[in-house]
Amino acid sequence: MGRVAALCWSLWHHRNDVVWNNNRSLPNQVGRIAYNAWIDWFAVHHLKYDENHIPAQSTTDRWEKPRIGWVKCNVDAAFIGEARVTTTGACFRDPVGNFVAGFMQRQHTTLSTVEGETWELLQAMKEANRRGLNKVQFESDSHVLTEAI
Q1: Which of 29, 69, 77, 117 has the fewest CB atoms below 10 angstroms from its CB?
Q2: 3-state secondary structure 74-134
Q3: pLDDT of 1 over the 90 cut
Q4: For residue 124, what are the CA distances in angstroms to 34, 74, 109, 140?
Q5: Could you tell me which residues are beta bridge partners of residue 76?
């Protein structure tokens, strides 16, 4: 089922690229992109559901400051399954703990925990880049995400 979904997504994506940008891809390129997307999806979900996987244990329940000259960004995601809403947020703080920047996003879609946490980490990285923050320590409470990275 995952392979079919990846292929459909790849076909749809490349069809839109032809319609809107007049960019054409060879059929084997479309197939290769679909295959790679499926492999990535499978790897994430295999890690998520691996029965032998033992999550890392948290060493602290308190916020720990980053090194001098660095900024720390905490990311998190929350889910309301019945409403099909995913809310994500990030908070950037300096070594003293002062607020530097932050944001939250609400999406009317249901993502898995690892998908939501990964999406938020990507958005936080983009925000750090946009603000010119080069030394950023990212932190997430998602053991699956942190171990995958």
Answers
A1: 69
A2: EEEEEEECCCCEEEEEEEEECCCCCEEEEEEEEECCCCCHHHHHHHHHHHHHHHHHHCCCC
A3: no
A4: 27, 9, 19, 11
A5: 89
- Here the tokens at position 75 are 């990311």
Angle at the Cα of 148 from the Cα atoms of 115 and 31, rounded to 5 degrees: 65
Q: The domain 71-148 belongs to what CATH superfamily?
A: Ribonuclease H-like superfamily/Ribonuclease H (3.30.420.10)
Spatial distance between the Cα atoms of 72 and 58, rounded to a whole number of angstroms: 17
Q: To the nearest 5 percent, what fractions of the chain are helix, strand and coil?
A: 45, 20, 35
- What does DSSP say about strands 85-93 and 136-140: parallel, antiparallel, or unpaired? unpaired
Question: CA 55 from chain center: how many Å?
Answer: 18
In this structure, what are the phi and psi dihedrals at residue 11, rounded to the nearest 5 degrees?
-60, -45
